[in-house]
Design brief:
This protein has 666 residues and is mainly alpha-helical. The chain has two domains: 88-106 and 126-376, MetI-like (MetI-like fold); 398-659, Orthogonal Bundle (MetI-like fold). Helix content is 78%, strand content 2%. A two-stranded antiparallel sheet has the order 1-2. 44% of the residues are buried.
Length: 666
C-alpha cells in the first residue's frame, strides 16, 4: 500500500477493517489540505482582504489562450495545406458532398426536384403522413401509428408543413452520418484498446463543450448554412453511438467470432457478418440517442443558417411572437416524441419466424402509400399541397392569454422573483464571485487527493488552474453559481420523488410518463414557457435548468434504492429496526454509489441546459460562447467552451471517484 492510499483494507484473519499507519497519515494530511482550501475560499467572507494576485490572476500573468486559439483556427481554415490542397478546399468539398443528400431529401419532401431539366413536385402530404403511420404500425402498433401520423397532421394543420419537412430531412441526414461515423469509431475502439483510451476523453469533451462553442469553428471550416449546422449536429450527437457500439461489440460472446473465423471468414467478414449483426439490438440504443440529440440541435443549428422548425421558433421568440413560437415548439415536441417512440420500438423489436414474407407485404403497403397520392395529386390539388384554407392558427389566442396571465400574475411573479433574487440568487452569486482562484484550485485538488489520490488531484487541479488562468474566471464563477443552485434544487425535488417511486410501483408508473416526456423534449423548448411568464435573466434560467435536470435525480435515486438487496433490509427489520431506521442506516448507505451517480447525472444535465440559457440573458461562460458567434471571435468561443467543459469534467471525475470508492493508486 502506498502512502497516498486513503481507504482502509481488512486486517488479515480478523474480518475487521484496520487502516495502516501510512494510509491513516495520508488521509489526515488530505483532510488538513481540504480544511486549508476551504479556509482560503471563505477568507473574503470573513472580512480578510487577500492580495489581489491571489484573488484573481493579474492580466499580465495570463497566457493569451484566446488569441492562440483564434489564430490557430484562422490558420487552419484559411492558410494551412495538406500537400498541395488547402484545408479550406477540403472542408468546403466535404460540405458540397454532404449537401447533396440533404438537398435530395429536402427536394423530395418539401421543395421539389429538377432531374434532366424536368421539374418534379415534392411528395404529396398524404404520402408522407401515410408512410410514417405505416412505419409506426409496423413496429409499434396502432397507438404508435396514430402518434407518428398525428404529429405530421398537426404540422400541416398549423401551416408548418414545409418547416417540419426541412427539419426531418436535416435530422435524417444528420442521424445517418452520425450513426456511420459513430459505428466506425466504435469498431476501431473495439479492435484497438489504446485508441479507445484516447477517444474516451475526447468524447467527454465533445459532450460537455457548450453547443455554441462548436458553431464558430464550424462556420470557419464549413461556412454559414444548413451544411455547417448539420456538421455541428453530427459532432454533438455522434459520441453516444461510438460508445454504445464499442460496448455492444464487447458484449458479443467470443464464441460467435471464433465460429465465423473457423468457417473461413476474414477479419473484416467476421466483423461485418457476425459481430455487428449480433450487436445490432444494443447498437439501436445508440441510434435512438443520436436521433434525440439531433433533434435537440434543431433550434441551435438555426443560429448558423439551418431552416425548419428551429428557425420558426427562433424568429418568433426574437420578435416576441410567443403564440407562433408555442405552435412551432409544440410541433418539435410532437415530432420528437413520435421519433423517440419509433426509435425505441425499432430498438426493442426482435426478429421473428416468417419475418421475410411479412416484410415484403409491409414494403408493398409502404410503396402504395407513397405512390397512390402521387398519382391522384394532379387531379386533386388538395392532395399535392395542404390548402391554406384548411390551416388554423392559435397564435393570437395564445398571445392574448399570455398578456392576460402576465397582467393577472404580474405582481405575484414580481414578488417571487424579487424574493428569490434577494435571498437566494444574489447572496450565492456574491459568494461565488468572492472565491479567490487560489482557493478554488486548492479545493479541487484537495478533494481529488481525498477521493482518488494524487493523480486525480493533479489532473483536476490543472484543469481548474486553466479555468482560472484563461481570462474567464468571473464568467466561470457566474456559471458555477447557477449550476450550484440548480443542482441543489433539482436534488431536493428529485430525490424525494425517487424515494417515493422506489416504494410505490403505482406512483412510479405515473412518474415514468412524466419523466419520459421531460427527457424527450428538446432542451430549447423549456425556454418558451419561462420566457412567456418570467421574461429573461437568471431566475427564468434557474427554473428551466431545474425542470430539465430533475429527471436523472428521480430516475437514478429510484433505481439505486430498488437495487438494494431485500434480504439485507429484512434482516435489519428483524433485528428491530423501524422502517425509517432501515432506510437511513441500511438502504441509503448501500445505495450510495447509485445516489452519487444521480448527483453526477443531475450536474451534467444542468450543464447541458445552462448552455441554452445564454439565449435568455445569463452572463456566464455560456454567454461568451454565444457572443463569440455574433462577433466572429473564434478564440473567445473556443476557450470559454473549453473552460465550461473542464468544469463539467472536474465535477464528473470527483463524483465518479466518490461513487467508485476505490483505493487511490500511485
Amino acid at each position: 500500500m502506498t502512502a497516498l492510499e486513503l481507504r482502509s483494507e481488512p486486517a488479515t484473519g480478523t474480518g475487521t477493517t484496520s487502516p495502516t499507519p501510512g494510509a491513516g497519515l495520508a488521509r489526515h494530511l488530505a483532510l488538513a489540505f481540504l480544511a486549508v482550501a476551504i479556509l482560503l475560499c471563505l477568507l473574503p467572507q470573513l472580512g480578510v482582504e487577500m492580495p489581489p494576485a491571489l484573488a484573481a490572476i493579474p492580466d499580465r500573468y495570463l497566457l493569451p489562450w484566446r488569441q492562440w486559439a483564434g489564430d490557430a483556427l484562422t490558420y487552419v481554415a484559411k492558410e494551412s495545406h495538406i500537400g498541395p490542397v488547402m484545408v479550406s478546399q477540403i472542408t468546403r468539398g466535404i460540405a458540397g458532398v454532404i449537401l447533396q443528400p440533404m438537398l435530395l431529401l429536402q427536394g423530395l419532401v418539401s421543395k421539389g426536384l429538377t432531374i434532366g431539366g424536368v421539374e418534379l413536385p415534392p411528395l404529396p402530404w398524404p404520402s408522407v403522413v401515410l408512410a410514417s403511420a405505416l412505419l409506426g404500425l409496423r413496429f409499434g402498433g396502432a397507438r404508435l401509428a396514430l402518434m407518428t401520423g398525428g404529429a405530421l397532421l398537426y404540422a400541416a394543420l398549423f401551416g408548418l408543413w414545409d418547416a417540419t419537412m426541412l427539419t426531418l430531412a436535416s435530422v435524417v441526414v444528420s442521424v445517418a452520418f452520425g450513426v456511420l461515423l459513430g459505428t466506425l469509431l466504435g469498431v476501431l475502439a473495439f479492435r484497438h484498446p489504446r485508441i479507445d483510451r484516447a477517444l474516451q476523453p475526447l468524447y467527454d469533451v465533445m459532450q460537455t463543450v457548450p453547443i455554441f462553442a462548436y458553431l464558430v469553428p464550424i462556420l470557419y471550416l464549413f461556412g454559414f448554412g444548413p451544411v455547417g449546422a448539420m456538421m455541428a449536429t453530427v459532432i454533438y450527437a455522434m459520441p453516444p453511438m461510438a460508445r454504445v457500439t464499442t460496448l455492444a461489440l464487447r458484449g458479443v460472446p467470443a464464441s460467435i467470432g471464433e465460429a465465423a473465423a473457423m468457417a473461413g471468414c476474414t477479419r473484416g467478414q467476421v466483423m461485418r457478418l457476425a459481430l455487428l449483426p449480433s450487436a445490432l439490438p444494443k447498437m439501436m440504443i445508440g441510434v435512438n440517442q443520436v436521433l434525440m440529440l439531433s433533434l435537440t440541435m434543431v433550434i441551435i443549428a438555426s443560429v448558423i443558417g439551418a431552416d425548419g422548425l428551429g428557425a420558426v421558433v427562433l424568429k418568433a421568440l426574437q420578435s416576441l411572437k410567443i403564440g407562433r413560437g408555442l405552435e412551432a415548439g409544440l410541433a418539435i415536441v410532437l415530432v420528437a416524441i413520435a421519433l423517440d417512440r419509433l426509435g425505441q420500438a425499432i430498438a426493442e423489436r426482435r426478429p421473428q419466424h416468417g419475418d421475410a414474407a411479412h416484410s415484403r407485404r409491409w414494403a408493398l403497403a409502404f410503396a402504395a402509400a407513397l405512390i397512390l397520392p402521387c398519382l391522384l395529386a394532379p387531379a386533386v390539388p388538395a392532395l399535392a399541397h395542404w390548402p391554406a384554407e384548411w390551416s388554423v392558427s392559435t397564435a393570437s389566442w395564445w398571445d392574448a392569454r399570455i398578456a392576460q396571465m402576465n397582467l393577472a400574475f404580474a405582481d405575484t411573479l414580481r414578488e417571487v422573483k424579487t424574493y428569490v433574487f434577494l435571498w437566494l440568487l444574489r447572496p450565492t452569486k456574491l459568494f461565488f464571485l468572492s472565491v479567490p482562484w487560489v482557493g478554488a484550485v486548492a479545493l479541487v485538488a484537495a478533494l481529488g487527493l481525498l477521493l482518488g489520490g494524487w493523480r486525480l488531484a493533479l489532473s483536476c487541479g490543472l484543469l481548474m488552474l486553466f479555468v482560472a488562468g484563461c481570462g474567464f474566471w468571473e464568467p466561470a464563477q457566474l456559471s458555477l453559481y447557477l449550476i450550484a443552485i440548480s443542482v441543489v434544487l433539482a436534488l431536493l425535488i428529485g430525490m424525494p420523488l425517487g424515494v417515493v417511486c422506489a416504494a410505490s410501483p403505482r406512483f412510479n408508473a405515473g412518474m415514468r410518463v412524466v419523466l419520459d416526456t421531460i427527457q424527450t423534449l428538446p432542451s430549447f423548448v423549456y425556454l418558451i414557457p419561462v420566457i412567456m411568464l418570467l421574461g429573461s435573466g437568471d431566475f427564468p434560467a434557474l427554473i428551466a435548468i431545474v425542470v430539465y435536470a430533475v429527471t436523472p435525480a428521480v430516475r437514478f435515486t429510484a433505481d439505486a434504492l430498488r437495487h438494494v438487496p431485500g434480504e439485507i433490509v429484512e434482516a435489519a427489520q428483524m433485528s428491530g429496526a423501524s422502517r425509517p431506521q432501515s432506510f437511513r442506516w441500511v438502504k441509503v448507505p448501500l445505495a450510495r454509489p447509485g445516489l452519487l451517480l444521480a448527483v453526477n447525472q443531475t450536474v451534467m444535465m444542468a450543464f447541458g441546459m445552462l448552455v441554452i440559457t445564454a439565449l435568455i440573458g445569463t452572463k456566464g461562460l455560456e454567454s461568451d460562447t454565444l457572443i463569440s458567434l455574433s462577433k466572429a471571435d473564434p478564440g473567445r468561443g473556443i476557450i470559454a467552451g473549453a473552460a465550461m467543459a473542464f468544469l463539467a469534467i472536474i465535477i464528473d471525475r470527483l463524483l465518479r471517484a466518490a461513487a467508485g470508492g476505490e483505493p487511490a493508486r500511485p
